[in-house]
Amino acid sequence: MCLLKSVCVVLSADVPPVGPMDLPLSLLEMGRSGRFELITYLPDQPLPPQSTLPHGLPPTSLGLEREVEKRFLLDPAWLPIHDTDFAFQKVTERKVNVDSLLSCAPSPLHSGLSVVRDPTTGMLLDFTEVLLENTGLSAKNSLSLQRQPGPPSESLRGSNTNYPFLPGGMEELTLDQIKTRSEQEEEIDFEKDLLKIPPGLKAGMDFSDKDAKIAKPEVNLMSLLSTLENIPDLLPEAEEKEDGKTGEEAVKLPRTNSLEDLGIKAGKTDKSKPKENPEEKKKWAVPVDILSPCEDFYKRIPNPAFKWPFELDTFQKQAVLRLEAHDSVFVAAHTSAGKTVVAEYAIALSQKHMTRTIYTSPIKALSNQKFRDFKNTFGDVGLLTGDVQLSPESSCLIMTTEILRSMLYNGSEVIRDLEWVIFDEVHYINDAERGVVWEEVLIMLPDHVSIILLSATVPNALEFSEWIGRIKKRHIYVISTMKRPVPLEHYLYTGNSTKTQKEMFLLVDAAGNFLTKGYVSPAARLHDTSDRRPQKQMWIDRAVWLTLLHFLSQRQQTPVVAFTFSRTRCDENARSLDSMDLTTSIEKAEIHSFFQKSLSRLRGGDRQLPQILLMRDLLKRGIAVHHSGILPILKEVIEMLFSRGLVKVLFATETFAMGVNMPARTVVFDSIRKHDGTGFRNLLPGEYIQMAGRAGRRGLDATGTVIILCKSGVHDMADLHAMMMGKPTILQSQFRLTYTMILNLLRVEALRVTDMMRRSFSESHRDTQAHEKRISHLKQMLASLPPLETEGQLSDILPYYHTATEMQNTREALQKAIMESVNGLKALSVGRVVIVNNKQHLNALGVILQVSSDSVNRTFTALIICDKGNEEVAGKAEDSTSFQHLYNTALFIPEGPCSHTVQKLKLQDISAITVKTLKVIPDRIIDNYNKRQQPRFRADPPGQAISTATQELLRLAEANPGGVATLDPVNDLQLKSVDVVESSMRLRVLQDSLLDFNCVHSPTFFARIKERMSVQEELDRLLFLVSDQSLMLLPEYHQRIKVLQSLQYIDSSGAVQLKGRVACQISSHELLLTELLFENVLSPLAPEESAALLSCLVFTQNTQTEPHITSTLKESIDRVLSVAQRIGQLQRECGIAQTAEEFVGQFKFGLTEVVYCWARGMPFAEIALLTDVQEGTVVRCIQRLDEVLKEVRQAARIVGDSVLGSKMEKASLAIRRDIVFTASLYTH
């Protein structure tokens, strides 16, 4: 360490002051060398510095010891505030600095300096102050990407106090807009809705465009020359660019002999041009033709971001071209068609662009597999699942969709650098429980992120892509291929006799043709053997499996995946093959070596678990089982051995087909019926295709073999045809409201829950764009109509219109009820006199001649009296909606000679059924009328039957000019339902009220209101359709808001309170867990008891065993159930459909004892004996429980309960051990 030398220039004390004649000299010390120089200076100036180092030597670094002491022992930030440990006191006396608590970060500068330069020379001329935008933006107040990054600790997962980034397709609102925006507010068109006349003045401004009103400009030679003069002109480039369109149109003027034609045509094109709007006809989903080959692929992409050792298929090339253009794609193809190529290219492209990619998968096992595959290919790959976090700084992150949702809501900084999000297995959006997560993520993704969707073949890929394109306002390119790289052959196998042991019946060939012969043969064979004595089903199963597997083994058609829709049957089938050995001695050695190496990380006791010992024996013989009850590490060992071809027969449940890319030579279906949680049903075509698609290994097999076992009989041919040839399940919205979603959106003012609902796939049928176009058109129509007169006699015209409309609707409802009743149809039989009102007739009497047999659109042929000359429907007849017959009940009586017409009437044309009937001869009347419609018989007089009926009707009208008595639906037709009685009473009230209106006395009153009201009604209907009020989930949203307000998660204005902020942290069962926290249910419990109690949130099965638990735990379980009961009842009171019993029934306490003993350190082998739940399920529940404990710890931190937080940490540490938390084989 160098010591600083103090330097002083030695000057003699008795030197006289400087005189005018003295030389201006001074001494300057040079550095630290001891050398001086003589320098001159101006006498009027101050003395120059006397050393070249006026401040001494530059500072040097501290000694290491001193630095450590200063940084780690004396720095207050490192010392515990409340711990007065003597050891710390000895090192340093801590000084209390109260002011440090008041320190706050300096506010950002709102302005900066900008340099002004000379544009020609570039010389610096001046500095000007400029205002800086977005300086105050942060993650706590803005959705903008311009905001400052948050602290590094929050960069990955974000924080629940952060705003999310603005979702793509939503416009960002300013603070003022947010304050003023309300649901009732109408948008103002600042071009058309401007007020023109100021208050108190008679005239005002005219804002209309004068030029637009000129209908036909005068055409003369000079005007045409002026139009054409800018074609040959050498205009500057800038002007040409501005008027590019005009120039182009001018150049393309057609040749014509008439200058006038030219002028008129030009005028027309100019006029029609502004009306065209390409946005209106835009389709967001763009289907890509995969049949057209990409011959110029390598020309268009000379330097691809990634190269494969094989030639790409056409659909892969098309997808890569779209990715290079930074477009979003939806790729729908069969299993093993090569969809992963698209994902790989996106990852390579983001690495080339130095951006990031997120790959999401529906299940954790698939995430782990993809991590291993991509890690080997790209290297720079990270993994984020509930319990694992590996290389989070990588350019490619693999995660489950739930974690991506959480990152989007919490404003993670990763989103800034994101270029692609790849959604694998998108058809999982149909999952009732978790499908909503996909929709939330797709809606919340910001604008700069492109989307890649990979899915099995789905019928409505275009519709789904159209929805995404519309909410994101970007094109989605749909690339769909039905081609299978390895075609499948589907067989039936009976194997119940020596004849059929080595016989399979081809049902669907490789070309996809259904062969009926393949069905008839096995059905006949089974019929031959059906008279044998019955055997036990288990022995039949065992015999069929043994014969089939021997047969397939001889034909070298292994590996085989046998799909069995029951975990118990999977285990039984595998155990029943104890006599079968499918591996060679070399393979046995390889299996043994791999098995031992994989399980070497387990503790000694865990290696001796019954399930592991059983599986070891099965694996050595080439047999394995794969379902959710198997230990995760064991499942991974089985998957790896299967992919290496060492497992010859794998008994698996449906989950094995979900994304896990493990193709086999043959797939066998044990049955085609499964239990879906509510009951047994046949497999859906989509499920069958997904599982059958595992057959056929690309590059190894010419065809894949799919076999359906017929053990107890051949399945119905129609069922087989529907399952094999039917269309896969369409993508359907599973969108539902959750409390977490509502709270996460309520805490951000600029985002509304209704926006999320409107953008969901379930609301994709709302064509808002077309509606809004029609609304603006209707508003223009309404403005162009003459204003409504509501003075004098017409003062009650609007109430009259509404009354008359209600009356007509009530009458139509009554008529429908009459038509659907037996008595009503009897009354409307041949000969019944009715009153007819339609475009042609007003209160005219008619008699029914015929009733059609069509029950849906029933018509009545009737003879109706009319004026002479009014026999046919006139073109300009008054519309039936004029309601004239409602207030004018007087029957029609012809002014001149009475004529007649025969017409087919609809139900709405018959306004009343009278009590009168006539004796008529329908056939004669209809034949005579039809005959007289022919031109040569038109002058003939009507026949006797028609004349008699017409005279009877006329006599009836003249005898009752005020109206004939009609049949009452309630009293006469005996229709006693509540609706009919209410409608009938309402109709009478409305009829009586019509007499009080004055407007009926004005003869032309209705023409004035009808057109305007029909436009207004359509406008109101469309405004309702585009408003939030028409959202399907809106009532449920209001119900859930009521629940949150009652529990004080939000206040009356919708602001999120402390309880709401806590609930935002919790991903499932948020209400119950938050209530337990605030009611201190967990406080009296030990860490292991807390873990045991919270296991009810993650365990969903029913168990037969009764857990033996402590009294404290029993009390806590009762408290949990009472809290759940209270929440369930509150939800029911607020209108939510779920009953309190259903809500409470979600929480199962079957694993409390298991978790309690595990947290206290009991070995896994012993806790497995405490329950009938399979080992794999226990492991998965404890893993999920760890995630719940982390969430509770975070929630406790928000509440400020440090004791509970540390308790949760201890509980988490207690369960994170041994086989339950062994690292995945894929990640190491």
UniProtKB/TrEMBL annotation:
Domain of life, source organism: Eukaryota
Iron-sulfur as UniProt keyword: no
Molecular-function GO terms, alphabetical: ATP binding; hydrolase activity; RNA binding; RNA helicase activity
Keyword Cytoplasm applies: yes
Localisation: Cytoplasm
Reaction catalysed by this enzyme: ATP + H2O = ADP + phosphate + H(+)
UniProt biased composition (Basic and acidic residues): 242-252, 267-282
Keywords from the UniProt entry: ATP-binding, Cytoplasm, Helicase, Hydrolase, Nucleotide-binding, RNA-binding
UniProt xrefs under Pfam families: DEAD, DSHCT, Helicase_C, MTR4_beta-barrel, Ski2_N
PROSITE patterns tied to this protein: HELICASE_ATP_BIND_1, HELICASE_CTER
CDD domains attached to this UniProt entry: DEXHc_SKIV2L, SF2_C_Ski2
Region described as Disordered: spans on this chain: 142-161, 235-282
Protein name, entry field: SKI2 subunit of superkiller complex
Taxonomic placement: Eukaryota, Metazoa, Chordata, Craniata, Vertebrata
